[in-house]
């Protein structure tokens, strides 16, 4: 048996178990079930969003981009595990089964058919050019639900609040503080600001200050950087 010291000076051995913390898990309600968490003045917009989503699915299926048979089989074969995307008891069962002690929880639990996407596409599709009103409404709906979702076992779930950071700074700052007070632990901003001010612009200083005061890391999830593509840069070398 090999004995060593950890960063705190405690004796550790090669027999000690690993502590596994996942930094990239996902959770979210089936999209239509976000309604109770959405401000009522946006319910009509939400109905239109859901109808548009269904039309887009039908068109993608018609064009052969979406495979409905595959999606249906995926959900049938994995129904129990996928339920952990919004059912806390099932989620704990899945975490325990995988030996995961704790997790960082991003939005959108379904990577196959987007059936658990946050309202108005503000989950992993959160973008700098999102409609500011609908973007904040959808983000707040997800954040309210997520706070409830992680509250039962906060030591195991670090909920990542959605933050449409390119919206009006005062509203963005208010959402940072509200998310912190509700028990969420980090903030996700769009990977790209698109046609809005870049993130080094001083207009965002109050947001970064609020995040620092709350001790909430600012994260992105996926997406290419703005500007010249990597392929173009390599081609010019």
TrEMBL record:
Example of a GO cellular component annotation carried by this entry: cytoplasm
Coiled coil residues, start to end: none
GO molecular function: carboxy-lyase activity; hydrolase activity
UniProt-listed SUPFAM superfamilies: Metallo-dependent hydrolases (SSF51556)
Example GO biological process: secondary metabolic process
Record-linked InterPro entries: ACMSD, Amidohydro-rel, Metal_Hydrolase
Domain Amidohydrolase-related: 92-232
Top-level taxonomic group: Bacteria
Sorted UniProt keywords: Lyase
Protein name as it appears in the record: Amidohydrolase-related domain-containing protein
Annotated organism of origin: Streptomyces avermitilis
